[in-house]
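Shapes recur. Our protein:

. . .
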Amino acid sequence: MIRGRPSTSLVLGTVLFACILLTYLGSGFARDEWGSNLNRAKWTSSPASRGESDVFNKTLGFDRVFVIGLPGRSDKRDALTLMSSLTGFKLSWIDGVVGDTIPDKALPFGWDRETMRDSNLGSWRGHINAMRHMVDGGISSALIVEDDMDWDVNIKWQLAQFAAAARSLQNGFHQNQTLEPPSPYGQNWDMLWLGSCVTTFDEDLPEDLQIPIEQRDPRKIFIHDDPTMPSPRHILGNGSFSWDNYPAHTRIVYVPGDNVCSFAYALSASGAQKALQYMGLEGQHKPFDNHLSDLCRLRINGMRCVSIVPSLFVHHRPKGKISGDSDINKGDENEEVREVGFTENILYSTRLNLKNLVRGLDPEKQWVG
């Protein structure tokens, strides 16, 4: 039997049904499950009314976001590239330096290779290279991040809250600089310390770190009712105070006394010049972050610093061999394996929510309660 051609009405009906089905799948459950632009926009986009230089742009309100990392740590580059993509900003990489490749003639004044680790020396050189890159390129401002960082999926919202507080604190700074383009963080800052592991306020400094009373700045601005704050029992790094003395869900923006760990910090153009002069040319006889803290605590070169606690950028400890956590503190290759990764102080961890974010699902809290 010879079959005839299907009728025109049947063809049109089939096409119409297919279009309806595709429309349903494209806008309904399937898209929600695997990730839609609308869902992803919650973490990456900004209202159209926001300016190009604000914290919601592709460089978090800075000219650049630099990450310092050894080229061989491709695992860390993979992670941060995906994390920044899913939270809506772009990274520029600064190659880290292996300390034993630095010749003796290039050692900073005061460095003793017999007592100091080459890994600390390499860390110092990597950060100095980032500062020099800023000065050489005439970069107005840059956020400098280490390559093992994590941050909240709401990082842009957090930075917007911080920016308002930072601008207010600058009313007490000497004002001799205008950033171009204008910065959402204010016009009169040298360094914004956004990631540290221990915080000590000016008024709580131990005797050996104290500065003259007239130089101290105990001012603090509180960000209340922050829904991205973990509960006090999940907050670490408050070296000089108890969170019991502050309302729940409160972050503190302050002029740093003594911070430890250089997880993430931003420099303005003038800040990069001041830091390069002191950190690069005056000498180095202890770990980089200790000298960075001196730069702010002692107001060296007139340095104007603002910080926040709990920090917005924190060291992530991934699942896998614990010896792979740090390229400075090298552990035994036979150390135990961590089965579950974690990040201190970050409630909606970007690193721990990557699987949810790539599928367009809502992020989950690292802790409940």
